[in-house]
Amino acid sequence: MCEDNYRQMLEEYRGIVNELFMLILDRNEQKSIEIANLRMKIETRSHDRKVKEI
Description:
Blueprint: H1 2-53
């Protein structure tokens, strides 16, 4: 009985840890996308300035 409760508790904790891990990965992926978008904006503006100078 005690062992079953322990296993159930472990499974619940494992599920919670997996959910947190997925949230962290999703957030990191979202941040990577945001950083890539910002880089593209910067490169575009930089390119636009060079074109205007010429």
